[in-house]
Amino acid sequence: MTLEHSPSRHLTAAPPLTRGRLLGYALGSVGTGIFSAVPGLLLLFYLTDVLGVSAAVAGAVLVAPKAWDVLFNPVVGAASDREAVRTGRRTRLLSLGSLALPVAFAAMFAVPGPIPGVVWAGGAFLLAASAFACFQVPYVALPAEMADGTAERTRIMSWRIICLTLGILVAGGLAPEIVGLGGGGRAGYAVMGVAVGAVMAAALLAATLSTRWVASHPGPRQLGLVAAFRTARGNRPFFALLAAFVTQSLGVAVMLAGAPYVAVYRLGDYGLTSLMFVCMVGPSALAVPLWTRAARRFGMVPCYLVAVAGFAAAALALIPVIDSAGVAGTLLLTGLIGVCYAALQLLPLSLLPETVHADAARTGHAQSGAFTGLWTAGETAGMAVGPGLFALVLAASAFASGPFDAPAVQPGSALTGLLLGFTALPAALMLISLPLVIAYHRLARAVSPKEIHEPA
Fold first, then answer.
1. Maximal CA-CA distance, the chain
2. Which pLDDT belongs to residue 2?
3. Which pLDDT score is estimated for 88?
4. What's the pLDDT score for residue 226?
5. Range of 405's domain?
6. Three-class secondary structure of residue 192 per DSSP
7. Transmembrane residues, as ranges (predicted)?
8. 232 and 206 in one domain?
9. CATH no. for residue 68?
10. What is the pLDDT of residues 150-188, one digit of tens each?
11. Helix, strand and coil in the chain, % to nearest 5
12. Residues of the chain falling short of pLDDT 50
């Protein structure tokens, strides 16, 4: 059975994708990019170097809410599919996430005096992660329902990744600066939470309102959560792609968590956190169209492999460069990492809808929400475990936590540990993901259209 004649296909052709509709959908990624980046970049540092929480405890605070979210994401996916069956839309969950996430995000960085900071921040992070799932899961499911063909879905992803890059730039570039303008310490972080949360709210609500035209067609019979995943076990390409993406997300999250520590303790200036982040993410806006054209010419998977290997090589090259070439060399290599990072966002997300549609052709059941719930659960796990893993590196290397007004002096072991955690550990995770990408390619060629994996 071909994809074009699958029972999961739309009964009518999808409406044309105008630039307005593409932008309306993509704006949501400004908000999701902010939430994906800021906690990973600043929350661990906020706990250890502003609130004075030990690295081990701070790591547990970061991982626990996301561990819950890994379980919660598939539940949201099934709920999204049920909503699509009842209403033909996924708008209600999108609206809930759009309204709740910015408030919980601001609360994470607004710890009141009488309540222990670690308890407040952890609880607010749990609420924020749950709200994020309510938006992200149905949001990721929409491209499979917005367009019928691979080329159009890749076009959707290109717009989305550009807006995602913009959101990440807002998070990583402006958030640390706002902390400084707010006076640093608790007060500075509280100001940042409100300001960045307002930008997030505007982006998420704009996407929710702009995608009400998308008609969801889950199919004549919708599977329950348990039955959906029992059926999904046969979709081997999906799970290979998911494993690769999660491993890469873990590597990126480790590097994000380590950036402020490298800026402060290896380069001597917390303000470089923003500059490092901009140099890493900024090139993505230019690189996405280049990767899109390269994928059309050489194939998505070959370009994907090149990007993963390039990320690993640049991360390893940072080890001697941070000390020998200082700020200039570090920023140059982080820019190269940013070029590769663009592909790590664009290409797997472009391949994801194809695995969903291929599974619908195989089983006769459409379960986009279930698959994207599992996908976002995996991504959430990687982004959550990353800071926790970096926190373990800090704890193992005897990193000394201290409050903002009494910073601790670090031993040599901690300085070495945070450097290797920022460079060698992400590189190793990228290299581990390479065989998983190759496995995906081998499995997917047996069930997916040739043009997905081969040059046009």
1. 67
2. 33
3. 81
4. 58
5. 222-448
6. helix
7. 22-47, 53-72, 93-111, 117-140, 161-181, 187-207, 238-264, 270-291, 303-322, 328-352, 373-399, 419-440
8. no
9. 1.20.1250.20
10. 677 778 877 887 888 788 777 777 888 898 888 888 889
11. 80, 0, 20
12. 1-11, 219-225, 451-453, 455-456
Q: Residue 68 in contact with residue 129, Cβ under 8 Å?
A: yes
pLDDT of residue 224: 47
DSSP state, 409?
P
Question: Is 12 a domain residue?
Answer: no
DSSP state of 377: H
pTM for the complete prediction?
0.71
> What letters, b where the CB count within 10 A reaches 16 and e where it falls short, cover 45-71?
bbbbbbbbbbbbbbbbbbbbbbbbbbe
Residues 6+ apart with CB under 8 A from 438: 305
Three-state DSSP at 90 gives coil
pLDDT at 1 (0 to 100) = 31
Return the ∠ at Cα 337 (arms to 342 and 328), rounded to 5°. Answer: 135
Q: Which residues of 314-339 are buried (b: 16+ CB within 10 A; e: fewer)?
A: bbbbbeebbeeeeeebbbebbbbbbb
Token digits for 273?
């956190």
Question: DSSP string of 209-224?
Answer: HHTTTPPP---SSPPP
CA distance 245 to 348: 7
**314 and 369 together in one domain:** yes
Side-chain half-sphere CA neighbours of 176 within 13 A: 26
* CA 353 – CA 280 distance, rounded (Å): 27
Q: Are 383 and 36 in contact (CB under 8 A)?
A: yes
Q: Which residue has the tokens 């043009």?
A: 451
Any domain includes 117: yes
CA 22 to chain centre: 20
Residues 23 and 162 in one domain: yes
- Could you tell me if 71 and 125 lie in one domain? yes
Q: What is the pLDDT of residue 219?
A: 47
